[in-house]
Amino acid sequence: MIKKVVTLTNKLGIHVRPASLISKTASKYRSSFIIRKDDMEINGKSVMGIMMLGAGQGTELELVFDGVDEDELMEEIVELFKDKFGEE
Amino acid sequence: MEKLKGSSVASGIIAGKVTVVKSNIYQVTQGRIDNNEIDEQIQQFQDSIKHAIKEVDLMLSYLETHAKNEREILISHKEMLKDEVFIEEVITLIQEKLFPADLAVQKYIDSLVNRLNNLDDEFLVQRKEDFEDIKTRIIRNLHQKDIQHYDKIKHERVVVISEIIPSLLLTIKNTDPLALIAETGSMHSHSAIIAKSLGIPVIFNIHHATKTLHENDFVIVNGDKGEVIKDPTPEQLEKYKEIRKEQQKKLKEKISLLKQPIITKDRVPVELMGNIEFPEECDADEIQYADGIGLFRTEFLYFLDNTFPSAEKQAVVYKKVISSIPEGKPIYVRVFDVGGDKLQREFGLHKEKNPNLGCRGIRFLLKYKEIFRQQIRGILMASSLGNIKIILPMISSREEIIRSRKIIQDEMRSLEEENIPFNKNISVGIMVEIPSSALLAHEFADVVDFFSIGTNDLTQYVLAADRNNEALSDDYTYFHPAVRSLIEMVIRAGSADNIEVKMCGEMASDPAAVALLLGMGLRSFSANINKMVEVKKIIQSYTIPELEELYQKHRKASQEEMRNIYGEFIA
Q1: pLDDT digits 0-9 by tens, B308-319
Q2: Do A20 and B131 make contact, defined as CB atoms within 8 angstroms?
Q3: In terms of domains, do B16 and B29 share one?
């Protein structure tokens, strides 16, 4: 299991487009992927779940990866956050 | 007295009694299911998801391309509907808690929404609406069988409803409604277009209308203002009667104007047709009294199912248009003008840096010939029933016309072999929208039956100015001397070679520009429906000699000068 803390840096936070990007990416892997915000915890493979987080710019999120391909999954997801989901 | 505000979809004013289409279809089933019903409930749930996705696709397909925000919302809804975690969780609720499918959907989504409620961010309001929308969409699909409930709508009433879907509109149409009021709905949607075609006042987005308005309430519906007055005062009623009278008079005037022959003041006949995107638009009076349909855009056929429909399916649509307008009037069908920008994923095309200069229009069709063949075949199959013609979009060279014609020939041959009737002499023309084809118009004479000038693209290509770029809004103008010069070349080529020249596109809908074009020698226009009355008035107001003289006098004018001269001339 790997844990990683990321901060949302894009202007609009996690709206639908990033949410679907994250869930689609995560769904390619077998490992589980959980996103935690404050006391909430959701399945990172669910668009609805991610949208429900309502995470805006500056929010800190804890990402938890667990499974056989957790390293690759973590790398790809963290890359998405770094890249601000291709936004401003 | 109480005033309710919404957004106007179709104008007009009317007073009458309300009928509320109360739908209990959102009320979920209570209780638990039996073990032997689990599989059936899961199957129904999965089917309802599929249907809901189809519905969203359909709504997407009918959105005008510029409705960017609404498009994004719908795309996000589609993503939500495809959420596998959600689907699994609902299935688990059905299996383990023995919830009926609709209840399971409600429970799951409500649990998400409740958690959202704890967050006090403004932009979450939209998110909450997204969840609610998805929920009702799925549940409505699960309750599809309850739809006949709508048969009970009372006749000749002001129909009040929560949300309008195209299929429901057709049911309402049969009840001779006085007006239509909906709680939600997009102004750019297919529902809005069909609603407009009913010819009655239509207002969308009156929140809680089905709760505020009750059966048999007396209301005045003002479609112009997007306003409903419940229990009007005697003064308001008096005023209504006056406006109504005025309106009836105007409508009569419009119809009588539309019935008049389309000729100039000195009785020179001019062709005036209309542009349509959906078959339902044929119902407009403007189209019924016009010289035909000068541009039938067909891209919506693709967006219906996000796939290119078969020839047979397309033929049904073309036949519908033929039967919707007076017999014999021409219908100019423009074959798919789609490009790689929209179809990248489906066709494995590379992302184009500049889709407007990319693989679109005829270039796309000649590359994916099967799509082209199916459409040509569909058009031909309808061609024996009416005066249907083919327009090829984005033509830039003679070779493209010859290659396209060969495909048309091939399809004719195969229909012949199958003994399917079609019009062997169907007209095939081109859109003149790339400057090269305006320059070469004269050399296309032996391979085309007509030219249709598309000013939107012609202007943007010859001036290298994107018409959607706000910074260039002054630069992008069809009054520019270069655009005028290209149009003149096409008109000249047409008259030298005896080939009809027509114009669709925005310029043909602009009264000032029509005055200019008549002076230039153009005699055939296809305008947007809402501009046809204005354009007709212009045609009737002047003589050809005076327009010719005006044009000759100002031939050298700049774009600004030209716009002002004609703007003042018709004022």
Answers
A1: 888 998 999 999
A2: no
A3: no
Among candidate residues B202, B230, B252, the one where a domain is terminated: B252
Backbone conformation region of residue B351, classed left if phi is above 0, alpha if psi is from -120 to 50, else beta: beta
Taking CB atoms and an 8 Å limit, are B121 and A45 in contact across chains? no
**Domains of chain A: residue spans and CATH:** 2-86 (3.30.1340.10)
Nearest to B84 among A15, A17, A27 (CB): A27
Q: What is the CATH number of the domain that holds B80?
A: 1.10.274.10
Tell me how many degrees the CA angle B128-B136-B49 measures, rounded to the nearest 5.
Answer: 105
pLDDT in tens, B471-486: 888 889 999 999 999 9
State how far the alpha carbon of B329 is from the alpha carbons of B293, B311, B428, B515, in Å: 8, 23, 16, 25
Amino acid at B308: F
Q: Which domain holds residue B135?
A: 25-146
Q: CATH number for the domain including B566?
A: 3.20.20.60
Phi/psi of residue B398, each to 5°?
A: -65, -40
Strands, sheet with B179-182, edge to edge from the N-terminal-most edge strand: B2-5, B227-230, B218-222, B13-20, B158-161, B179-182, B202-204, B7-10
Identify the residue with better confidence: B508 or B347: B508
- ipTM, 2 decimals? 0.85
Q: Do B529 and B380 share a domain, yes or no?
A: yes
Nearest by Cα to A35 from A15, A69, A61 = A61
